[in-house]
């Protein structure tokens, strides 16, 4: 801290009283981002327009990518010299701490082998179980019963809803590497304003399911092909309170699951075909965004992405603009799927309901079907010796 110019008051030793730290000021985060961004741009980085936290730099055959979360950085490059140069530059501008090869980042545990990269949140899962007093609970095979239904009117209101809200918030972060609990956590998050005892009981059931495999996570295969493909589906009028449908999709790059989402649609769909069509439009937007990310990373994806849907009527509406009478009430932005099909960036295909992987994110499944879907999505138990866990591969 420096005194203002010409600020003198005799020759006595002066002490400044700090009323509020700069780190806590409202402008602090904006100033930090502005300083960091200008420094990286001056060093030759290009800020991605698709994800403003991603910076990339190409220099001949050398490529380096920098991903930022507030003041935590992830660096990836095909040149160790480029990484060393970047660390030297950052250290000259800011005081940095080099943590070496990536193993733990914001609660994510990362392991590498010849099979690929495995992501899990084992420590974070155990912390949730310990804080909830569920470390000694009996494990369950399913996060939710197959024929389970829940609404706002069930159960008695909680006297202290903060317990439920805090637990759901932590479970939402756990879904980064455990998409198998994404549907039920998303469902419970809709009752944050007035949670009841029934909602809390379902949340504790999720913890019992997590107890069965706390190290379960994503395996990003090293042998995946460079091909985007997505599965989309919807659960028509599934919400008992609003009768709105639920959109769900999952996107793969080769064999690796890289994106998934479950979200209640903003309007009430008049038919299951309309609900499926809206789901296709949302998935199309996600595929378009992922293409931009790949382009920023210097990865070419000229071939069409494949979009799988199990509803023949929705596939016909997407491919045939003649169905005016059945679609004139649908917003124009939903028809972007037609443009993408015509320009060849997306092709649609039918998939049977039994092979619809997006069902994992939208409704309760029987145990055998859930395990089959998780296996196809590359979700494995990090420490299990029976499912091909990464730790078994000594390479």
Report on the architecture of this protein.
Strands 5-6-7-8-14 form a 5-stranded antiparallel sheet. Strands 11-10-9-12-13 form a 5-stranded mixed sheet. It has a 4-stranded antiparallel sheet with strand order 1-2-3-4, covered by helices on one side. It folds into 3 domains: 32-100, no CATH class; 119-215, no CATH class; 224-363, Ribonuclease H-like superfamily/Ribonuclease H (Nucleotidyltransferase, domain 5). The chain is globular, with a radius of gyration of 25 Å. Helix 7 (272-296) packs across helix 8 (312-319). The protein has 395 residues and is of the alpha+beta class. It is built from 11 helices and 14 strands.
Q: What is the CATH C level class of the largest domain, in words?
A: Alpha Beta
Q: What oligomeric arrangement do these chains adopt?
A: single chain
Strand portion:
15-25%
Termini gap: 52 Å
The Rg value, from CA coordinates, equals 25 Å
| Overall tally of domains | 3
CATH architecture of the largest domain: 2-Layer Sandwich
- In N-to-C order, the SSE pattern is HEEEEHEEEHHHHEEEEHEHHHEHE
What order do the helices and strands come in, and which of them pair?
Layout: H1 28-42, E1 46-47, E2 54-59, E3 62-69, E4 72-77, H2 80-93, E5 104-105, E6 108-113, E7 116-120, H3 122-131, H4 162-174, H5 182-188, H6 197-212, E8 216-221, E9 228-235, E10 246-253, E11 256-264, H7 272-296, E12 305-309, H8 312-319, H9 324-327, H10 336-342, E13 346-350, H11 367-376, E14 379-381
Parallel strand pairs: 9-12, 12-13
Antiparallel strand pairs: 1-2, 2-3, 3-4, 5-6, 6-7, 7-8, 8-14, 9-10, 10-11
């Amino acid at each position: 801290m420096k005194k203002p110019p010409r600020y003198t008051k005799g020759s006595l030793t002066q002490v400044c009283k700090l009323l509020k730290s700069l780190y806590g000021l409202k402008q602090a985060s904006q100033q930090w981002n502005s300083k960091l961004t200008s420094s990286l741009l001056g060093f030759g980085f290009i800020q991605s327009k698709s994800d403003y936290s991603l910076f990339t730099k190409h220099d001949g055959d050398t490529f380096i990518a920098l991903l930022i979360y507030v003041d935590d950085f992830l660096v990836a490059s095909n040149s160790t010299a480029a990484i060393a140069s970047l660390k030297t530059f950052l250290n000259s501008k800011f005081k940095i701490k080099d943590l070496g090869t990536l193993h733990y980042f914001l609660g994510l545990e990362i392991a590498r082998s010849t099979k690929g990269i495995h992501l899990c949140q084992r420590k974070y899962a155990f912390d949730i179980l310990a804080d909830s007093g569920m470390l000694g609970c009996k494990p369950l095979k399913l996060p939710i019963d197959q024929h389970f239904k829940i609404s706002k009117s069930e159960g008695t209101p909680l006297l202290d809803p903060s317990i439920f809200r805090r637990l759901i918030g932590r479970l939402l972060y756990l879904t980064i590497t455990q998409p198998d609990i994404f549907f039920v956590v998303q469902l419970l998050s809709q009752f944050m304003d007035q949670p009841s005892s029934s909602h809390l009981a379902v949340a504790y059931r999720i913890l019992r399911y997590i107890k069965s495999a706390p190290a379960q996570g994503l395996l990003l295969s090293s042998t995946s092909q460079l091909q985007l493909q997505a599965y989309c589906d919807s659960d028509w009028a599934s919400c008992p309170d609003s009768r709105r449908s639920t959109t769900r999709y999952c996107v793969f790059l080769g064999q690796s699951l890289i994106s998934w989402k479950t979200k209640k649609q903003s309007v009430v769909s008049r038919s299951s075909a309309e609900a499926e069509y809206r789901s296709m439009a949302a998935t199309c937007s996600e595929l378009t965004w992922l293409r931009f990310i790949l382009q920023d990373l210097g990865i070419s994806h000229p071939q069409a992405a494949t979009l799988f849907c199990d509803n023949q009527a929705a596939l016909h509406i997407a491919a045939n603009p003649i169905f005016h009478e059945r679609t004139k009430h649908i917003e124009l932005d939903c028809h972007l799927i037609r443009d993408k099909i015509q320009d060849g960036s997306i092709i649609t295909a039918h998939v049977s309901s039994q092979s619809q992987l997006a069902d994992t994110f939208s409704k309760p499944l029987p145990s055998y079907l859930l395990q089959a879907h998780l296996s196809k999505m590359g979700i494995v138990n990090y420490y299990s010796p029976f499912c091909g866990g990464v730790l078994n591969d000594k390479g």
